[in-house]
Design goal:
There is one protein chain. The radius of gyration is 29 Å and the shape is elongated. It has 4 domains: 110 residues, no CATH class; 57 residues; 195 residues, Nucleotidyltransferase, domain 5, CATH 3.30.420; 47 residues, no CATH class. It is an alpha+beta fold and 442 residues long. The strands form 2 sheets. A 7-stranded mixed sheet has the order 6-7-10-9-8-11-12, sandwiched between helices. It has a 5-stranded antiparallel sheet with strand order 1-5-4-3-2. The structure holds zinc ion (ZN). The site of zinc ion (ZN) has 7 residues, from loops.
Length: 442
């Protein structure tokens, strides 16, 4: 069982043989292994001498212990410098953890894990607050989840009994807390815009507000961000090709995020500008593109290429991006994402051979001979939008997919569910905007 001792339980650290090793910084930080929780010898992992960063880490470890062994334990003493835990049934069980000046952290001084009681399925230590912390992600992910469904999920997970009212209170508290953050952050949006302009002079950060009725207070409508350093870097060092795409914001906040993404000299994603809008439609795309055109100073659209998803063009009544591009950039080369065309087309026409014909776009005649219906369906997607044979050479880029935008959407998956200012900051952070801006500080 020597190797077992290396497994750290619940973030606690063993003091190995001597204090010296701990003081030298040899602290094992091993995340709790899910398999460990089902291990019948778990009790062996809690030992006298274990170190905890603070009292709450110890308390959390003991709640996990209580849930795993189904023992109803309680805080006999719960003070800032010491925590003592006993069994409700009066068993010999006792755990005492207190501040240890030598290690500058909490240490488990007494650990007697002897129970004479039976398993309990209703535990004192499992509180509403603990449930809020543990299941916050699940509650935020699906705010409309029914209480009973959430309780069933938690009960299956922990294998203990919970009252429906406790689950309901926990769910409500998480949603209220999150909601509060969301609405509060709209008040700080001008501060965010000002900070962007202070740190990146000559950037464009535009906030559009609206009023439901003329006498009503202003409410947030749209936001557009284009950093000067990114704009200049794009104009100076990237090919004139822009990918356009929109993605939904997640969680409590409704709306969509539109983005214009270029390719840098390494053929990697290069975000140019993005906007938070109420919905992706003709009007919002027009607003976004007008600002983008102004920022990039596009007077002659002949030399420019735009790539967008194909679906945005077929559902003209819903999105109308194709019309907006035709209106604002009449001479631009508009490519559609071939990968998405294939995804739509291959719903009816599957198979490796057909895919090969699709990829080798010149073999249309062979495709007709092979599968006339497949060829006919493929003609619904005009080849000039996605076939390399029809593409202009000015842009010096033969890309026919919108992968850059998808990479951008993929990068900002987590920020998309956060409150607006936090989301915008995290978009900056995840796309390493500050780093890129610093590199480009001329
Ligand atoms: Zn007991």
């Amino acid at each position: 069982m020597e190797s077992v001792e290396l497994v750290i339980h619940h973030g606690g650290n063993f003091v190995k043989d001597s204090e010296q090793q701990y003081i030298n910084g040899e602290v094992w930080e091993v995340d709790i292994d899910p398999d460990l929780l089902s291990c019948p010898h778990l009790v062996k992992f809690i030992k006298e001498g274990m170190l905890f960063e603070d009292a709450s880490q110890f308390k959390n470890a003991m709640i996990k212990y209580a849930v795993h062994f189904k023992r109803d334990i309680y805080f006999y003493k719960n003070e800032s410098m010491r925590v003592r835990i006993k069994c409700v049934e009066g068993c010999p069980f006792v755990c005492h953890c207190s501040w240890e000046e030598r290690y500058r952290c909490f240490q488990l001084k007494t650990c007697l894990l002897e129970h004479r009681c039976n398993c309990k399925y209703k535990l004192k230590l499992v509180t509403q607050k603990w449930l809020e912390e543990k299941y916050e992600d699940i509650i935020i992910k699906d705010p409309t989840m029914q209480h009973t469904k959430l309780r069933d999920h938690i009960q299956t997970d922990l294998k203990i009994n919970l009252t429906i009212s406790m689950v309901r209170r926990a769910q409500r508290a998480v949603l209220e807390r999150v909601n509060l953050g969301y609405s509060e952050q709209f008040k700080r949006i001008r501060d965010y815009a000002q900070e962007c302009l202070n740190s990146n002079p000559r950037s464009t950060v535009l906030i559009k507000t609206t009023r439901v009725v003329p006498t009503a207070p202003c409410t947030f409508h749209r936001l557009y961000v284009c950093f000067q350093a990114m704009k200049r870097g794009f104009l100076d060092g990237c090919r004139p090709i822009i990918g356009l795409d929109g993605c939904f914001l997640k969680g409590v906040m409704k709306g969509e995020l539109l983005a214009a993404v270029g390719r840098d000299s390494n053929n990697q994603m290069y975000p140019i500008a993005w906007a938070v809008v109420e919905i992706e439609n003709t009007d919002s795309w027009k607003w976004f593109l007008q600002l983008l055109i102004q920022d990039l100073g596009i007077n002659n659209s002949w030399n420019w290429t735009v790539i967008s998803d194909q679906q945005k063009c077929t559902c003209v009544f819903v999105y109308g991006l194709v019309h907006v591009i035709q209106e604002l950039l009449p001479n631009v080369e508009h490519r559609h994402c071939a990968r998405q065309i294939h995804a739509n087309w291959s719903k009816k026409h599957r198979g490796k051979l057909l895919k090969k014909h699709f990829e080798q776009q010149t073999m249309v005649e062979q495709l007709r001979l092979k599968d006339a219906q497949a060829k006919q369906d493929l003609e619904n997607y005009p080849a000039k939008f996605w076939c390399k044979a029809f593409m202009r050479t000015e842009v010096k880029c033969d890309s026919v997919d919108n992968n850059m935008c998808e990479a951008f959407d993929g990068t900002i998956v987590k920020p998309r569910s956060k409150p607006i200012v936090k989301m915008l900051e995290d978009v900056d952070k995840d796309c390493k905007m500050q780093e890129r801006c610093r590199q480009m500080a001329w």
